[in-house]
Write a structure and sequence with these properties.
The protein has about 110 residues and is of the alpha+beta class. The chain has one domain. It has one helix spanning about 85-105; strands at about 5-10, 15-25, 30, 45-50, 55-70, 75-85. It has a 6-stranded antiparallel β-barrel. It starts with 5 loop residues before the first strand and ends in a 7-residue tail after the last helix.
Length: about 110
């Protein structure tokens, strides 16, 4: 049986990155070559579609956990993603608000 082929679309901070020709191993997406993640935002929307164009997975708020190369699988690269929780989003918004207030009132938050 042939493995299903996926395309990932990662959208965030006015950037869209498409990663093609991926397979799955467990919950990891597998690429024959290293994926350039240098322009990947901290959080993004992840949409995975198969070769028929069917949406197989959507994460509204996701992050890349890791990209690892494994010699035991012919040097393929495994990409692991995880959802970002609502609490993490709220914490980041609150921290940004505090940093803004500190900047506007000339308060050093490092003390």
């Amino acid at each position: 049986m042939d493995k299903e082929i996926f395309t990932l679309k990662l959208e965030g901070q006015n950037k869209t990155i498409e990663i093609n020709n991926l397979t799955m191993n467990g919950t990891n997406y597998v690429s024959e070559t290293e994926v350039d993640t240098s322009d990947l935002p901290k959080w993004f929307k992840l949409t995975a579609t198969n070769q028929e164009g069917q949406i197989k997975e959507v994460m509204e708020h996701a992050r890349l956990l890791q990209q690892e190369q494994y010699d035991w699988d012919g040097g393929k690269f495994y990409l692991a993603f995880a959802p970002v929780s609502e609490q993490e989003i709220k914490n980041a918004e609150f921290k940004a608000y505090l940093e803004y207030l500190a900047m506007m009132t000339d308060v050093d938050m490092e003390q």
